[in-house]
Each structure stands twice: as structure tokens, then as C-alpha cells.
Amino acid sequence: MKKIILSIDGMTCSACSNGLEKYLNKQNGIYNASVNLVMANATIDYDEKILNQEKLDEFVKKAGFKSLGEFKEIKFKKKSKNEKIKFIIFTILAIILMYISMGHMINLPTISLFDPHINPIGYMVTLLLLTIAFLYYGFDIIKNGYKNLIHKTPNMDTLVGIGVITSFLYSLYNMYLVLVGESHQIMNLYFESSAIIIYFVKLGRYIDGISKDKTKEAIQKLVTITPNKAIIKVDGVEKQVTLDEIKKGNIVVSRAGEKIAVDGEIIAGKAHFDESFITGESKPVTKEVGNKVLAGSLNYDGYVEYKAERIGKESTVSEIVRLVVEASNTKAPIAKIADKVSGIFVPAVIAIAIVSFIAYLIITKNLSESLTTFVTILVVACPCSLGLATPLAIVVSEGLCASNGILIKKSEILENAQKTNSIVFDKTGTLTYGKLKISKIINYSEMEEKDIMQLVGSVEAKSTHPIGKAFTDYLEENKIPLLEVNEFENVAGHGISAKINNAKILIGNAKILEKEQIENSHLEDEKKLSEQGNSIVYVVRNDKIIALIGVNDVIRDNVKEVISSLNKDNIETIMLTGDNKETAEKIAQEIGITNVIANVLPTEKANTIKELKRNNKFVMMCGDGINDSPALANADIGVSVKSGTDIAMDSSDVILTKNDLHSVVKLINISKKTLRIIKENLFWAFFYNCLMIPIAIGVLKPVGISINPMLASLAMVLSSITVILNTLRLKKFT
């Protein structure tokens, strides 16, 4: 199976995106297709043995749209000067048209040349010419509407197109009747309705285009964060190049005030860097030789040279943009309600309009009134507001999360996070920084303490567990060299084993002693160290315990506040750790967690998550993404605390690039706000259509309430604007 994201042109409303999505999902070789109206693209999972991009482009074309090829970047179309001028010109023409067609009805001063009573021919020809100009202005709407009708994917343009052309042709017919002597038919001209309907739809599209770009601002900042040019060093000579010219392994130069061009590793120099665009952390980070730098980060105050490692699509920024775009292309469960309704909405409206036309014709025998009702129903119906209700909110929230260092992989997370009633935290590397330090060494052998630490540090240097860093740091600080290590093996949940100078070395917790059937006579020492909040490390040489080492960890900033906030929201907090119970309970007590599950292996962590879910808990698991992968995968929502450079390798649902667990609280709050906004949008969209369609049919005419096609088109625009403005309230969330 292969995945591709195609940029799509020609989608104007939810009926468009739903129609294309249904059409693509029916095709042989396509496993799943998801179409995003706001981002104007389609994510397609397909069988590469059956299909290729060319065939997918052809499917899009047959559905009535145009594929612009593989999605490479988010394009933000600024309104061109010509487009603005054209819109201003047609705004003036719309005012003139309304004045000529309706001014005499409200006793405004009239020009005799355009007065229907004095010069009916001049009046009709002027209206006709102005309307033809508007038909040209809105030709794309009419063309798209009828094209989609032919392809059996009718959309909002179809409703508008049918209404506009019907009104125009009926007006032409009545104009002919006036010319052959039936002068009273001059009051049955609806040229202005055709023109003003197009004008209001164009107005809505103009506003909608601006609003959609605003929803993508956070992503836009990421897209434009990297510089266009950089300085590389070739044979000691500096050379300015474009970003595309940088190759892996190139030495790139960064001076104070410049942005990092590509991901890399510093090989010379030292500086403070602003990485807030990735981590959300405003405080500058000190970087020196051996540290990684991220594309787009700002060099505050130093000179560094770094080796280019990840360029183009491989960079962290590109990876984040890809994740955000893919997430916004997935469907939240609540979106399926709107999709189902939008899918049958347009055909239903056309059917209602036809039935109403026939009913009016039979009852009133008035063709003019019947056609007016027909056109009004078609124009007033607004699938656009219904279709924008969910995707706009999702895109805004995705951008909001991204700007707060929260990367969401599926949009359903934004709907479901607010359901969380139980959060399970891993201890080391999640509730704590994982920056361990040696607090106590109890030596049971005749070896020197530094020799024991040399054995442990040499073996731990090959480990990826956070505890290993404490030992390697110890060796560096004391300038103790590493020994040659052979037959290294990681024993999951227990510790590690290896050979040094033919001696078998075991390093780990008490479980590794049980596994190797080694008698443990040091439980009292272990208890004392545990009571002091230490993680316990046994050191075994040739099946004999030679040392017991206590390692302390540092609790993350704001953890107490985060746990307190979650407890106030009645969300159960649980510590899940492979560490011993005494150490875990001491840390839990300090930060406010009452439920502690200790001494568990990685596989047992997953079983604990499953058990919580069986007890009707909606479980969020927060871990460091290394030993916690099974638990993260089994949770309803898996959240990993990682550095930005690890994003591509992560398999959890949510990645926190900012080293602050307060992001968990933010995620839940953003989820609550997003769901509330979506529900409000859907309510107003449903309410509008439930109210306006009956009014357009004429249900309220007996009490003096009715609308005409022009007012219908204005109401349609206002309904979409209401949804857009309501959604943009999310941007104010902090």
C-alpha cells in the first residue's frame, strides 16, 4: 500500500469534497481516500501494483475536478491586485444594477433612459448587458455546477447555477414578450436576481478564501520559518547557496542573528538558539559542539559551524508540516455526521425546489411566482456552512496545537481528548527529566569504587535507557576511560548484561537477580536507598553482587501544577513504572499522584492499560516513547514526550515537542473548546437551513414573511460567514 497527497483544484463546498471522496473510494485499487476542503487536497491510500499517480489524476478529472499533482507545500494565495480591482468594479456595477432595477420602486430619482415606464427598451437592454457581465464574472460557478451535475456529484455551484440560469432564461422570455407588445411583463424581469446572486456568492468566496488562509497561519509560519539562503564552507572558503543546493555532509555557517538552514550537528562554536517554533519554549537554549540544531531556529549570539544531516523533506520542520497536514486530512467522528448530511443535501434541495415549483404552478397557475420560489429555494440552501463546520475548526485547532508544541497525528484526537478520565504517566523521562545522577554507591567488593563505576559506565554506554546517562556522565566528569565491552544484551524490564575482560557483568534492578537465580542478601540496603527516592541498580560480576548504586532523578518543572489541575478536573492520574515501589511512591507523593503501579515490565504496562480500558476508562498514556511503545499503542490516546528530532520515528498519537507536561492539560482544553465550536457550527448550519428553506418555500407567507432570490443569496453568504467567524474564535484560545 502506498500513500499520496494530491492537491485538488475546483472544490468550492462540502458537497464537492464529499462527492470526490465517495467517487475515489469506489475505484478499484483505492483502499481509502479522504478529501480536505479547507486544505484543498486529497489523501489517498492505494495499491501501487494497480494504480499510479497518473491514474489517480484521471480519477479526479472524471469526478469533475483537477489534480494539481502531488502536494508539496501549503500554498497561500494572496489576493492579486487584479482580483481586488475586479471585485471593486463588480461591487460598483451591483450597486448600479440594483439602483436601476429597484430605485423606481422606492421612489428614488430615476434617469429617464433607464426608467421602465418611460423607456422600457433602454431599461431592459441595460439590465441585460449588466447581467451578462455578471454571468461572465461568475462563469466558473455556473460551469463547475453543471459539470458536477453531469458527473453525478452536484454541489452548491449546481444549486446556484441552476437558479441563475433559470432566472436569466425566464427574464429573457419575458423581455421577448415585452418586445412583442405585452408591456406588463416588464415587471417580471429577474435579471438583477441572476446578477446579484452571483455577486453575493463571489463575495462569500472572497471572504471565505481570506478566512481559510487565516486558519492555516500556524502552519504557514512553519513553512516559511527556514531561510532562503545559507553560507557553506568548501575547502575553507565560504560560499552563499540556496537551500536546495545544500547537500548532506556540507559544513554550514551560522552567525548571530541568522537562522539555521537545515537540521545538523554543531562541529565548531557555541551559541544560544531560539527553538520556540518547535518546542514552544521561549527561553533560548545553549548549543555547542556535538549538539543538534534544527532548521529555522534563530542563532542569538554566537558563531557556529554545523554539518548538514537532514535536508528538504527530511527536516524536522517538514516532518511537522507533514504531520499537521495529514492530521487535518483525517476525519473526526463528528465530521461524519456533516458528511452524510451534505452528501444527500444538494439532491434533496433540488427535489424540494422542483416539487415546490410544480405545486405553485398547480395552485397559483402563476409561472413567475413558481419560478421565483424555485430559484429562491435553490439559492438559499447552504451546504457550504454545513461542510465548513468541522474541517475549519479542525485546521484551526491543529495549527493552535502545533504552535503550542503539540503535534496531533489524527484529527479524531481533537474530538476524543476531552473524553479522557484517566491519564497514566511513565515516571523516568516523563514525570522526571530522566537526567539521573549518582547519589550513593555501596561497595560489597574489594574493587576500587572508580573501577566498579568504570565497569558499569562502559556497559551503560551501549544502552539507550535514561539511567545509563548518569553513569556515562560520571565517567566523563571523573575522566575515567571506557573499557571494551562484548556480548552486550538488553534484558527488557530487568537491566543489561555484557562481558568485560571475559567477566560476565549484570546491571539492573532486583528482577535481574531473580532471573539469574542470584541470592540477594542486600534487601535492607535496597530499602534504605528506595526510601530516599533512589532508583536501584545492582552490579553483578561473575554471578556475585559487587555493588548497589542509588540513582536520583529530577522531577519536571510544573508537574505538581499539572497533576493538581488534572485532579481538579476529576481526571484520575496514575504513575506506571518499572522502578521499585518505594522510590515510585516517594516521587508520586511529592507531586500529588495517589495511584502508583510499580515494578512492571514494558509488556505488563500494556496489560495495565488494557485492564483500565476494560473498566470503562478512557485512557491517555504519557511516556517517553522508548520502553513505553506497547502501552502507548494500547491506550485510547498515546502521548509521547520527545525532542523535535525524534518526530519521524514516533508511533504515538500525540507528540509533545515542548518539554512541559502542561501541554497535556492544554490538549484536553483545546479538545473541549474545539468540540464545542464544532457543535455550535453544526447547530447554526442546521438551524439556518431548517429555518430558511421553509421560508423560501413560502410556509410563512400567511404571516407576511417571505424572501426573494437576492435576499436568499445574501442569507446564504451570511450563514457561511457566521460559521467562519465562530470558528476563528478558537484562535483567541490561550
Judged by helices, strands and strand pairing, the structural class is alpha+beta
Proportion of beta-strand residues: 15-25%
Rg to the nearest angstrom? 34 Å
Shape: elongated
CATH C-level class of the domain at 437-552 = Alpha Beta
Fold-level CATH name of the domain at 437-552? Calcium-transporting ATPase, cytoplasmic domain N
Overall mean pLDDT = 83
| Poorly predicted spans | none
Number of helices: 25
What is the architecture of the domain at 437-552 at the second tier of CATH?
3-Layer(aba) Sandwich
Largest sheet: 8 strands, antiparallel
How many strands?
25
CATH homologous superfamily label of the domain at 437-552: Calcium-transporting ATPase, cytoplasmic domain N
Helical fraction equals: 40-55%
- Give the end-to-end Cα distance, rounded to a whole number of Å: 40 Å
